[in-house]
Every structure is written in C-alpha cells, then in structure tokens.
Amino acid sequence: MSVKAKADNIKMILFAAVFSVACFITSKDIKGNIFYYNSLNYQLVKSAIIFILIFLVTILNRKNSEKMNNYVSVYIAAVGIIYFADNYTLQLSGSLSFFRLWWLSLIHIVFLAYYLGLLIMKNIDFNKLSVKALKGYSVLYAVSFIVVFLRPISNNLTTNIVPGQGTLAYINYLIKYPNDSEILFLVVGNIIFFVPISFLLQAYFPKIKIYQQLITGFTIPFIVEGYQYIFRCGDVDIDDIILNFSGFLIGFLFLMLQNKTKNKQQDAQ
After folding, report:
1. CA-to-CA distance for 196 and 181, rounded, in angstroms?
2. In this structure, are residues 138 and 108 in contact, taking their beta carbons and an 8 Å threshold?
3. Which residue, 197, 203, 237, 229, is CA-closest to 216?
4. Which of 30, 158, 214, 267 falls between 20 and 30 A from 61, CA-CA?
5. Per-residue pLDDT of the chain (269 residues; tens, 9 = 90+)
6. How many CA atoms does the CB half-sphere of 204 hold within 13 Å?
7. With DSSP H G I counted as helix, E B as strand and the rest as coil, what are the percentages for the chain, rounded to 5?
8. What residues contact residue 234 under an 8 Å CB cut-off, 6+ apart?
9. Which of helix, strand or coil describes residue 133?
10. Closest among 213, 7, 217, 200 to 115, alpha carbons compared
C-alpha cells in the first residue's frame, strides 16, 4: 500500500471516529455527568464545536467522498433507529423530553455539517452522493417527526386561531424569562424542523414539480396541527402553521439555490 493510500485510510478512520462519537454527544439532566446540560450558551458552544469538527473532517476526506458517503448513509439511519428506541425505553439521554430533544438536535447538526461539507466539494458527483445521504437521513427525519409531532392521545389541548397571538406570547415570555431555553427551542424548532422537507422530496422524487413541492410544504403543517386537534394532544396554534411553512420556504429557496449552483458547475466541467 502506497503512502498516499495509507494517508487516505487514516483520514477515513478519523472521519468515521469523529462522526460516530459526535452522533452520541447527548445533553443529560444528571449532574456530575460530562454531558450534563448547564445552560443554553454551553449547549450552543458545544453544537458549534461539533459542527466545525464534522465540517473539517468531511472536507479532509474529499478523495474518500464515496466511501465516506456510504458510511454516513448507513450510520445516520442507524442512529435514528437507536434514538427512537432509547426515547421510548431506557431514556439514557435524559429523563425529560427536553434533554432527549437536545440530543436529537445535535444529531441533525452533525448531518448538516456533513452535507454542507459535501456541498462545497468540487469534482465529485454531488447529485448522486447527496441523494444517497438524504435517503439515509430520511430515517432520522421520520423518527424525529414521530417523536416531535405525533404525541400520545390525551385530553391536553389548547387552541389559538389568531395570527401573531401565540408568537407574541412567546416573545413576552422570553423577555420575562430570558434564560428559559425551552421556549426559544420551541419557536426556533418550529421553523428549522421543516427546512429539510424540500431536500427529502427531491431525493425521493427527482422529477417533482415546484407547485407540488409548495403544495406538500403547505399541507404538512395542517396535517400536524390537525392530528393534534383530533387527538387533543398539543397546542394547536395558527402561528405554528405559519412558522412551519416559513421553515419549509427557507429550505425550498436553499434547494433552488443549490440546484442552480450545481447545474452551473456541471455545465462548466
């Protein structure tokens, strides 16, 4: 084996190790544990460090792009299944759903860092690699959707059909309790969670039309809120629908930009 081949193997091993460990950096509610949740600032710093590390090791493995992508596709799907099992059984990542959701968010950040690293690479078959990676990620996304939105049937239901009222209540609460990261997590999450939908739709349906994308993105928030209303298991809020669709639109616009950029790169080659 040549020195160059050995160096590539070492880089691949480094990527696999960093990616694997990063997917299991949880935020627990057990004091004294190395992963104990201290504060929102601590959590954001940890997320930023993880993002940067994954992004760097991805770029470092440009020559191993196909092998690396195969690993990510399988591993991220497996982590999604493990998370799903833990959330409903042992709950090793925390006794409260808040901590388990922080772990879930970190797994998504790990994949995002990888995807962006893949996106900026040149001289690779990005379309082929991204589709495979997104299909693996779709398992994690489906798990996340079930955990976050398809809550158990109950009689705990609140409703709001006045646009802006729910968001204003959140803002007033954050002004009064600026250190309560749960509310901020909820508001930002309602936007960010719907960003990947366009990417996943294109991965599974490459010939999907723009109007079909928009109809799907508009419909899903109503399905989510409708489920919660029918089974009386959440806060049915028109503002959530607005935030959800806003997140979808952000993702849709990024997808259009990605496609335009990659098409230009292919034409130039």
Report:
1. 23
2. no
3. 197
4. 267
5. 678 888 899 999 999 999 999 999 988 887 656 577 778 888 889 999 999 999 999 999 999 999 999 999 999 999 999 999 999 999 988 888 888 999 999 999 999 999 999 999 988 999 999 999 999 999 999 999 999 988 777 777 788 888 888 888 888 887 887 777 777 778 889 999 999 999 999 999 999 999 999 999 999 999 999 998 888 887 888 999 999 999 999 999 999 999 998 887 776 66
6. 11
7. 75, 5, 20
8. 151, 156, 157, 228
9. helix
10. 200
The two structure tokens encoding residue 180:
């309560």
Closest among 110, 137, 95, 120 to 54, alpha carbons compared: 110
The C-alpha atoms of residue 108 and residue 139 are separated, in whole angstroms, by 12
Q: Tell me, what amino acid is at 115? A: Y
Which amino acid makes up residue 247? Answer: G
The span from the CA of 17 to the CA of 135, in Å, is 22
Token reading at 137: 């990620």
